[in-house]
Amino acid sequence: MSALRKVLVVDDDAVVGISFNRVLSEKKGYVVTTAQNAHEALKKIREESFDVVFTDIKMPGMDGVELAERVKASQPWTPVVIITGYGTTENEVRAKAAGVSDFVRKPLSPEMIESSAAQALREPAPELSPELATPPVEQVLAEVAVKESRIKNIALFVAAPFIGLAYAVLLPVVGMVMLAKIGAQAWKARGQKA
User: Fold this and answer.
1) Which of 15, 57, 103, 185 could make an SS bond with 64 (beta carbons 3.0 to 4.6 A apart)?
2) Model-level pTM?
3) Pair 53, 117: CB distance under 8 Å
4) pLDDT of 128-169, one tens digit each?
5) How distant is the alpha carbon of residue 181 from its chain centre?
């Protein structure tokens, strides 16, 4: 390889970046840059271009899927590979809709790192189809949240009079019980003095 391939590795675990740096060495034609979180990665992507981005899925702040969505929105030609120990169907659907090239499961081996880098650079990233421009999972989750919110509001509206009635009935009973308890303590204290 005449030109070095620039690889960005985004993971809050520094060991992952070190592993990529050891495996994807300059001798093999790579230059590895690391970022500890998605915000740092986006800053580095604005400052220079990368041939491939590897990102962890679970990170503090912005997760790897959202980072992948942002990278693909601004640079759709850049392959993005998700590194995950927490693969869920929802994340995979969102990531595939964003155009992620591949998923690499933790724990990582040198062979996995090298083959996933070679594969991501060899194959063009999948193109976004117009119907997947907005990830369907996000739409479904938003609709579910709205339905749950409506159901909750209706339930509270129906339950409110009963809750008020319970307070109206129980408050005097609780008050009388407390008065009786205080009276009993006073009576007991008066009896001990005599």
Assistant:
1) 57
2) 0.60
3) no
4) 444 444 455 555 556 656 667 777 778 777 888 888 887 788
5) 53
